[in-house]
Amino acid sequence: MKKVVGLGDMLISLSPKGYLRIMQAHSFDIFYTGAEANVCVSLSQFGIPTKYVTRLPDNEVGKTAIGTLRRFGIDTDNIAVGGDRIGLLYLEKGAAQRPSKVIYDRKNSAMCEAKPEDFNWDNVFNDAQWLHFTGITPALSPTVRQVVEAACQEAKKRGITVSCDLNYRKNLWTTEEAKSVMSKLLQYVDVLIANEEDAEKVLGIKASNTDVNSGRLDLDGYIEVADKISKTYGIPRVATTLRKSISASDNVWSAMLYHDGKAYSSKKYDIHIVNRVGGG
What confidence category does residue 247 fall into, taking pLDDT thresholds of 50, 70 and 90? Predict the structure, then answer.
């Protein structure tokens, strides 16, 4: 079986223990994470071979990040080595009515300074069937946007499926910047994943009869949005997660896939959140 390639930035996530706030913490739990890395880990646990492509510094921290990926069976042979640091993410867990809080410290990280020539695309894609990236990665820097576009172009040359999770992050760029960059990248995408907030803020497409803040969901509105995205950007498949937020600790989750004018819906799941990161 050929591999799924995840392209993104790897981070160290630092979280206060339990439900302490950052200002109360005297120690932090350490995790190695990243949106696309999380996808590779999940797929690997389902028996789907994956490889992760990023850039990490040549030091003990970078080597530990690579070792963490290998522990989950992920191919790390195409990780570029260079730069001085790995990015940090401080995560304060939400509880009940208190939302989660994220603080980024990732400027000038190894991946933020990556360039297309840092990667051997023939080696990256020689045994690949799928490329996955998120809207977080091109938000990091102008050169990383070039890396993502180069990867998409190389994947399309080889007939490789490309998927993208819009994953808008207001701490990284504005909605105007996101729309300008992502609209250009969507020409390469075969499968787009976007929740209601991403579709509205990045693409300016809003679901009818739905208010993100109120938690009211209308499936017909999401089908309408998926249809507009599919037709506007020529994307064959559009998937969305539908989340009803009861509190920071409890959500109702479901999903919808739109393809060839038809919508396929999952059942609804009542979820008690253990770790919000990667919950989608």
Answer: confident
- Tell how strand 269-272 and strand 87-92 pair up: unpaired
Q: What is the phi-psi region of residue 127: left when phi exceeds 0, alpha when psi lies from -120 to 50, beta otherwise?
A: alpha
pTM higher than 0.90 for the full model? Answer: yes
pLDDT at 211 over 70: no
Identify which of 152, 160, 13, 1 has the alpha carbon closest to the alpha carbon of residue 75: 1
| pLDDT in the model for residue 272 | 87
Pairing of strands 80-81, 55-56: parallel
| Token duo for residue 91 | 């995560």
